[in-house]
Design goal:
Largest sheet: none
Structural class: mainly alpha
Number of strands: 0
Helix content: 55-70%
Order of helices and strands: HHHHHHHH
Amino acid sequence: MLPTELLQQAFFLHALATDPTKMLPPGKSLLAMMARAPPALAPSAVHARVEHVVHAAFWDEALHSLCSPEPAVQLPRLKLLYTDLRDALVPLFPPNHTLLTMLAAPLPPTSSPLHSTLALLQDVLRALRQRCAPARDSAIDTPSTHSSPISLPLYHPVS
């Protein structure tokens, strides 16, 4: 897309969000207007390469911080995970659900934050299983193949 087309589209979306009556013709719905919007173009090879490098750097840093034997190094990354989980689960649970409360609370002091996180993730899966239709139980029980590009080994201290 050319920069002028991007600017026109940005202006249209801004005007639509701030004053829809100004942008929608009489008798037209927002759905009809968006249906005739041009389809998004496939990303270029450079864009795909940059995206791949950024994803690889993210997962490398996450793996490095979570594999550290120091809980102080693991905790900031785990807090980000808890925040992301809470943001994703807020629409699925009532506001006072214990799972959302646990995800919003400060991380408890522990000598093994990864084990505590695994226990919390099991609670998340149990809560999702309770809220989903039985037909979706297999989707919850079977890990997604695209949820993470790495398999994270747990750190076990040597005695």
